[in-house]
Backbone:
């Protein structure tokens, strides 16, 4: 039954009601469905124009251009009444920006569907989720009609808005059955709690020093110009490429011919560059960065081209184009995709995870006056997860005693070769700390690449490409590595076999997040015809538990941090960003000594839920700007 709260619009075919009756009905419910219709998609400038709340029996539509919803504030902020949304982050930020109400205790049917279908590649729109679970087909023709809408709402708009809340409780009930079957309640709870932290991060935003940012972008295009000159010189110095030097240089009466380019190549055109480089590498298929790396040490022109592409990428991604992401408040408000197949998070508009890692660009994000960044990240998070999962005695001892893990591993893998190249003052040989020996550095890098590659299911091909060695050498290095660490090999093999046998893989307790392999079938395990698909399942089965466990604990840390801020009225702290294992907050300067201790403790409390041996620690830094 649809009820309208509207003083100006009277409709004979709808029931009319006042706000007091809405509150009276809702305040005694343990669960309610909530949705909003807005003038646009940007909560920094657009506003809620229709607010819907109710259940399968009654749906209340509140025309917010004529009514404030402050009378529902206690219900929306209640931690005992569950509010169901589909895509909660969108609605809670609009409710916050339009009415200054911060929703608590939410259940997001979209996130739940992502968890229940993780890896299957299914759409989790409300339309598809309802069809899949309740066999209900919604008419979504009115979905975009509210954007820019003025004047009275039409009957079809009002009916559509009511349907958006009518089915959500039934949908949750269906999802609850699957949640119980797959034992995913802990994951469902985790994601529904952390969605409010991600909403906070998006809402709070980051201040940007635009002037300094554009200086860096302009520096990138200047460097690209310099590399373009170098590329031209390479062409002119190589006999194999002489066809790209025109015999005559076209100028005009006012041109200084000495300043004109003498090479007929457009370096921004992959097609033209491929034609050039095939003059020295006939079998080259493309000029993608990853494929080109193997040739960078052989040919200076390739190395220069890679540098040129890097600078052009920086300029195209972080020049004027990036400024379009600034909102009306002068801040960057990214958007999180909360659940990838591994359980990790991605970011878009803009992608904050791809900001260059050298800190130059990150440092352009600044704290307000009187505030500072207080950031915490896990020390060797994925390595600790691997050590915990494999129970490898060498790794665990190195972590307990604070030894340099990569060097310890390198010593075992390389044996006498490691000992023989130690320099006289090698600090590793004295106390197992990271040393500055030139030969040790190369060997350590090789093994470090494997250590971190374990978290991504790295094989010989990828190792060969990364270390610039041939495939046989990479295969031998991996074999030597697993000979030195049989328990790690056993751990990874166990994960791979589980995924191939059952068609899904799980993260560590207590969450046991599942990732399904959509192309798997029961007899695949012994099928020679499906070797490529099995290899893909093997890699995903190895890396998902490691990355997923890391994501789970970071999300738990976000929940604990948000709860702490919310329950300490004197805590002048805001969560402003998270990238992988790092959580960034801004904090009033006078509160920093207290908050440094608190955030470290909360991060480690979250880690101990997953890696229960207590070895995973957090490091805290304080600065005036965002840092890696």
Residues:
């Amino acid at each position: 039954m649809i009820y309208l709260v509207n003083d100006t619009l009277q409709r004979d075919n709808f029931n009319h009601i006042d706000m007091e009756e809405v509150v009276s009905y809702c305040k005694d419910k343990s669960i309610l469905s909530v949705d909003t219709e807005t003038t646009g998609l940007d909560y920094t400038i657009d506003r809620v124009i229709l607010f819907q709340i109710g259940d399968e029996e009654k749906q209340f539509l509140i025309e917010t251009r004529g009514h404030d919803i402050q009378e529902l504030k206690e219900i929306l902020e209640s931690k005992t009444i569950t509010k169901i949304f589909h895509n909660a982050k969108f609605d809670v930020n609009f409710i916050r920006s339009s009415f200054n109400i911060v929703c608590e205790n939410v259940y997001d049917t979209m996130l739940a569907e992502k968890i229940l279908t993780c890896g299957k590649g299914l759409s989790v729109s409300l339309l598809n989720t309802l069809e899949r679970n309740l066999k209900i087909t919604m008419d979504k023709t009115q979905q975009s009609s509210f954007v820019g809408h003025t004047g009275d709402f039409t009957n079809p708009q009002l009916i559509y808005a009511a349907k958006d809340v009518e089915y959500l409780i039934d949908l949750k009930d269906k999802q609850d059955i699957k949640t119980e079957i797959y034992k995913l309640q802990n994951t469902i709870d985790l994601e529904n709690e952390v969605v409010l932290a991600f909403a906070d991060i998006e809402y709070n935003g980051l201040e940007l020093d635009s002037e300094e940012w554009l200086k860096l972008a302009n520096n990138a295009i200047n460097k690209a110009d310099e590399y373009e000159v170098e590329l031209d010189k390479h062409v002119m110095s190589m006999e194999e490429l002489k066809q790209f030097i025109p015999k005559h240089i076209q100028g005009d009466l006012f041109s200084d011919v000495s300043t004109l380019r003498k090479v007929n190549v457009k370096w921004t055109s992959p097609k033209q560059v491929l034609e050039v480089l095939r003059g020295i590498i006939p079998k080259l298929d493309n000029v993608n960065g990853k494929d080109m790396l193997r040739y960078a040490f052989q040919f200076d022109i390739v190395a220069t081209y890679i540098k040129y592409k890097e600078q052009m990428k920086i300029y195209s991604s972080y020049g004027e184009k990036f400024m379009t992401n600034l909102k009306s408040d002068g801040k960057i408000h990214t958007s999180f995709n909360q659940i990838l197949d591994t359980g990790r998070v991605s970011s878009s508009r803009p992608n904050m995870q791809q900001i260059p890692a050298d800190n130059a660009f990150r440092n352009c994000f600044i704290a307000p006056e009187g505030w500072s960044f207080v950031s915490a990240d896990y020390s060797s998070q994925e390595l600790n997860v691997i050590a915990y999962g494999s129970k490898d005695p060498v790794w665990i001892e190195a972590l307990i005693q604070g030894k340099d893990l990569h060097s310890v591993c390198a010593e075992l893998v390389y044996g006498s070769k490691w000992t023989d190249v130690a320099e006289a003052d090698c600090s590793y040989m004295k106390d197992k700390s990271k040393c500055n020996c030139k030969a040790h550095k190369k060997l350590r890098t090789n093994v470090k690449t494997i250590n971190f590659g374990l978290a991504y299911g790295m094989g010989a091909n990828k190792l060969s490409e990364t270390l610039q060695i041939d495939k046989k050498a990479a295969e031998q290095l991996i074999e030597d590595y697993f000979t030195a660490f049989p328990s790690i090999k056993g751990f990874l093999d166990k994960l791979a076999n589980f995924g191939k046998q059952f068609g899904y893989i799980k993260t560590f307790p207590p969450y046991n997040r599942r990732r399904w392999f959509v192309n798997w079938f029961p007899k695949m395990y012994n099928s020679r015809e499906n070797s490529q698909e099995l290899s893909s399942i093997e890699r995903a089965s190895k890396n998902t538990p490691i990355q997923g466990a890391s994501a789970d604990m970071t999300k738990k840390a976000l929940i604990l941090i948000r709860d702490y801020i919310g329950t300490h009225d004197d805590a002048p702290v805001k969560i402003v960003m998270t990238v992988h294992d790092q959580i960034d907050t801004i904090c009033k300067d006078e509160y920093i000594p207290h908050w440094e201790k608190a955030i470290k403790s909360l991060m480690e409390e979250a880690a101990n839920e997953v890696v229960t041996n207590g070895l995973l620690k957090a490091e805290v830094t304080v600065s005036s700007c965002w840092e890696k």
Notes: Residues 210-323 form one domain.
